[in-house]
Each structure stands twice: as C-alpha cells, then as structure tokens.
C-alpha cells in the first residue's frame, strides 16, 4: 500500500481562520481512485519547520503533496523550504518567467517584480504547469518520496491535481484499484446502534465500512471496488437491516424530498412555532422545493402548548385543517411550541393527518432543538411521500403521543 501524505501550509490554515477544503477534496478524490491518503499535516509559515517536515515525510512516504506557499509574498515559503530540505539552492525558471509575463501581457498589465519569486525553484525540480494562475507547481525526488508542491488557490490546486498529479499516479501505480463510496443517510439511530446492527456483515477484501455523524444525521458509507456486483448485495442487506431509518440512498434527506415532491407534484403549506422558520428556510435551500411551498407562517410568540393531551390534539388538528383548507395545499406541516422538554409536530394530507408528541432524552442547545424538530417533521413528510409508516423510530426521543 502506498504511503501518501499531504502537508497543508499557512498560518491561516493552522489557526483555523480558513477551512482546509483542499485537504478534504484531495482525500476524497485520491480515495475514489484507489490512492487513500495515510496522513495529513498542517504547518504554519515557518521555513525551517516546513523544511524539517518535508524531509521527515520523505523518509516514510511514497507520495507527498505540499499545498500552499507558492505565492509572491514573503510568507510564501514552500520553494525555499523544499530547497532547504533537499540541501540545494534556488534557481530561476526562465520558462516560467516568460509564462508569467505572457499572462500579464494578455491582461494589458505589467508584471510586478515580486512575481519573479514564483519562478525561483529548487535546483533540479521539475516544473508543473499552471494555466489557471501565476504560481507554477513543481516536484522533486527526495529520499523515498516523490514530492509535489501545489498552489493553495482551490481552482489552481484542483486543476493541477486532476490534470497532472493524478494521471502521474495512475501511470506509475496501475495496480491501485479505484473505489466507489455508496452512502446511506440515516436518522433516528445512534452510531453505536448502527454499528451493532451491521456487525454481522462480512466485508470482502478491499471493502470498508465508514460512519460520519453530523447532527442529526448519521451517514453510513460502504467503500467498494468500482463496478463490483457484490457491493449491491451488501447494500441490499444493509438497507434491510437499517430499514426505514434510511432517509436517503446516495442523497440527503433534503435531496430526497426534492426528488419526491417534484415527482409527485405536491404543494406544501407550513405553520412553525418552535422551529421559528427553520423548516421553510431549510426547504428553500433547494430551488425546486421552494417552488412547491405555497404558504409559510412563522409564529415567534407562541405560548406553551396545553398539557392536556386531548385539548392539545384538538388544537393541532384545527391548525392543520386551517393550513390545508385555507392555503389550498396538498400537504400541511405543523411544528408546535416546546413545552418543557416536549414538542409536537403534525402533518395533514388528503389521506389523513398524523400528530405526535416527542420528548428529548437529553439537553440540547436551542439551535440543536430546532434542527431535531425540523428533521422529525420533514422525516414524517418523507415517510408519507414514500408510502411507509409516518411515525418513525427515534433512539434519542421518547414518544409521548401519536394520533392518526
């Protein structure tokens, strides 16, 4: 197995001022093509530290991708650090000087003298072209590793990886097998619960199971060799075990709702109390979904709900009927006020109405509460559209009441 390391540079990345989207993107791309990354490192704008990290990685990695630090300013130190690690000097690439001047001439601008720094490469380095920007990439061979230096600007970085670096890896390491990630998005189950449910599944060589928790969803990922038929058998078994807690197959709950609503041409009306507009804002993230929202009312000053369940159901039933009849919609959605640690949600269609009151099993922040309530409500919508039981199983919630 290849040892592949990525070194991200820059104080802004190290201190968290910006999110390292390049690293996440590269990890996904390399994995899909059979080159899983084994290590990721972040180094600030310090030449000697970066040089030591490059040298260290050159002994225990086959491939090293250094991202960032190729600009014209004084804090762009990757070329100098590479030269220090390789114990060589810097030399000017006349070819790249000419390329940069041509780029500026095309813009009817004179190239600033500071840009000459971007043509200073370690002696013996191989230049990697960058038709998108002024920072060329370059590669060196040091000890065990082939080390590529890439610009930090995402568009330039992605072009260089896809057009230059990945083809190099595929040419020199053809035995690596590309992988496909099959995704099942779930709601209502815990990560440990899902792990226990799937623990008896036997994975063939080259297959892996992964999990990604992002409140309130848990994404279950099956990594399998591309075009392997056995993957479909495994997926079918996983779907059987996870049941109707799967809110989307290779797509999120929201993407699934967009598909279902457009397919069935259902107009939606909403009345929100506890969620305070969270539901309608969430739905409006999808252009096609927003087209089917006929009415949306947000009540920020709702009083606490009745403790008497019969009175509560009667009031919600009345509210749902008003949404359905006055808005002339196909589906009405309702989120009630939070009463203590309980909340009530409801849905109405021509086929009937469904109301449930649920209780949080632990304390959540206000934003987390709104997210969970909105998810339960939209999960009810998803279930109704898919023709399965509207009342799901939620491990983190107690059901106090359900009425149809």
Query: Quick one: how many beta strands?
Result: 18
Q: Which radius of gyration do the C-alpha atoms yield?
A: 28 Å
Classified in CATH, the superfamily of the largest domain is: MoaB/Mog-like domain
The averaged pLDDT comes out at 92
Q: How many DSSP H or I helices?
A: 13
Q: Given the helix and strand composition, which structural class is it?
A: alpha/beta
What oligomerization state is this entry in? single chain
Distance between the termini: 56 Å
CATH class term of the largest domain: Alpha Beta
What would you call the shape?
Answer: elongated
Query: What is the CATH topology of the largest domain?
Result: Molybdenum Cofactor Biosythetic Enzyme, Chain A
Supply the CATH architecture of the largest domain. Answer: 3-Layer(aba) Sandwich
> Main sheet?
6 strands, mixed
Poorly predicted residue ranges: none
Total domains: 3
The percent of residues in helical segments reads 25-40%
Spatially, the strands of the biggest sheet line up as 2-1-3-8-7-6
Portion of residues in beta strands equals 25-35%
Domain MoaB/Mog: 5-172
Pfam families: MoCF_biosynth
InterPro entries: CinA, Competence-induced_CinA, MoaB/Mog-like_dom_sf, MoaB/Mog_dom
Organism: Photobacterium angustum (strain S14 / CCUG 15956)
């Amino acid at each position: 197995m290849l040892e592949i390391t990525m070194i991200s540079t820059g104080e802004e990345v190290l201190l968290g001022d910006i999110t390292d989207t390049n690293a996440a993107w590269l990890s996904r791309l390399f994995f899909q093509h059979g080159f899983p990354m084994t290590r990721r490192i972040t180094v600030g704008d310090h030449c000697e530290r970066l040089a030591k990290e490059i040298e260290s990685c050159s002994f225990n990695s086959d491939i090293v991708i250094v991202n960032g630090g190729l600009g014209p300013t004084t804090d762009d130190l990757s070329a100098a650090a590479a030269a220090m690690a390789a114990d060589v000097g810097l030399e000017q690439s006349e070819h790249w000087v000419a390329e940069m001047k041509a780029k500026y001439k095309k813009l009817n601008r004179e190239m600033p003298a500071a840009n000459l720094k971007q043509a200073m490469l370690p002696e013996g380095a191989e230049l990697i072209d960058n038709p998108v920007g002024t920072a060329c990439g370059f590669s060196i061979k040091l000890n065990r590793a082939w080390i590529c230096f890439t610009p930090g600007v995402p568009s330039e970085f992605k072009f260089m990886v896809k057009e230059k670096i990945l083809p190099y890896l595929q040419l020199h390491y053809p035995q690596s097998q590309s992988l496909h990630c099959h995704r099942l998005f779930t709601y209502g189950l815990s990560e440990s619960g899902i792990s226990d449910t799937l623990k008896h599944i036997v994975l063939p060589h080259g297959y892996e199971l992964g999990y990604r928790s992002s409140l309130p969803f848990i994404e279950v990922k099956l990594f399998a060799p591309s075009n392997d038929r056995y993957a479909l058998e495994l997926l079918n078994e996983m779907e059987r075990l996870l049941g109707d807690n799967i809110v989307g197959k290779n797509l999120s709950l929201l993407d699934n709702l967009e598909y279902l609503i457009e397919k069935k041409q259902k107009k939606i009306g909403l009345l929100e109390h506890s969620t305070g507009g969270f539901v309608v804002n969430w739905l409006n993230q999808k252009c096609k979904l927003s087209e089917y929202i006929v009415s949306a009312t947000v009540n920020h000053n709702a009083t606490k709900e009745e403790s008497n369940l019969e009175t509560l159901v009667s009031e919600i039933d009345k509210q749902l009927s008003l949404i359905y009849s006055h808005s002339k919609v196909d589906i009405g959605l309702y989120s009630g006020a939070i009463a203590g640690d309980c909340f009530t949600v409801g849905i109405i269609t021509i086929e009937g109405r469904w109301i449930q009151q649920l209780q949080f099993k632990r304390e959540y922040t206000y934003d987390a509460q709104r997210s969970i309530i909105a998810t339960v409500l939209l999960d009810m919508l998803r279930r109704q559209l898919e023709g399965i039981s509207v009342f799901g199983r939620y491990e983190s919630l107690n059901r106090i009441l359900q009425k149809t």
